[in-house]
Amino acid sequence: MNFSHELIVPETGFPFKLFIFEGGGGNYYREKHWHRSIEIFAVCSGELEFHIDNRKWHLTPGNFMIVNSNEVHSVDSPLPNETIVLQIPLKLFEDYFTGEQFIWFSHEPGRRDERFMELIRELYGTYGRKACGYDLKMKSLFYQIMYLLVKDYRLMEVDDASVRKNKNLNKLSAITSYMKENYTGDLSLDEVARVFDYSPNYLSRMFRKYAGLTFKSYVQSIRLGYAVKDLDSGRYSITEVALRNGFSGSRALARAFQKKYGMLPSEYSSYVKEETHVLIQRRVRD
């Protein structure tokens, strides 16, 4: 299993990040991942399937899912949908922690679901219109949402195992953030263990237990993710893409790319060029 850590950056001028879910077109699957921020998926139309640990939730219009900090989850979007996503940095809840950097919200329906969805929709609508004073209204709506979260959805009693897992994923989040910032350089197990003052064996076990994969596989996953972005841009040769993203050369990139995506980088690059050409032709005709 491949669990990745996602780094979330708030909107400029606001203490949160707000956007429409990228899987709105359907035929989309977001692999298992986690992040320190609290994340809310509010389905306005269509449907989604959420997988958290060993449970599955089917969301329909009017439903929402609260994803807790460091909670490993995946999203399946086989059909078109419109889903608003609100991401809130964990530090905004620090006055309500029930343990060491810990707060936990229920996934089950609450008494105020209709009001909660109404606020989410109004928040996004205000963001889209950007009328005079919209920033003040957005902050007002956002803090009403925060109020409902801590009042109606916060769990006061959480088992010790969840607290321990959260604490270890907090440590792993710091490590994976460092790896994403330094993925082009030396990211050997020994070097990263030295930076964080762990033994290589301990760090290796941490990745296997809490990320569900080896340290080496995680490094390769990061590098492949950035390599795909470079191939999408069309600005670099395959060899340049490889060297820019920490691979020893084009052959190493090709092996890793083929294993994960089922095609060679050159095949993917040709596909991107073809899709871009078709899009340009459509715009010319329109």
Task: Provide a quick synopsis of the model.
This protein has 286 residues and is of the alpha+beta class.
Structural commentary:
There is one protein chain. This protein has 286 residues and is α+β, with helices and mostly antiparallel strands. The protein folds into two domains: 155 residues, Sandwich (Jelly Rolls), CATH 2.60.120.10; 92 residues, Orthogonal Bundle (Arc Repressor Mutant, subunit A), CATH 1.10.10.60. It has nine helices and nine strands. It has a five-stranded mixed sheet with strand order 1-3-8-5-6. A four-stranded antiparallel sheet has the order 2-9-4-7, with helices on one face. A hairpin with a 2-residue loop joins strand 5 and strand 6. The longest helix has 22 residues.
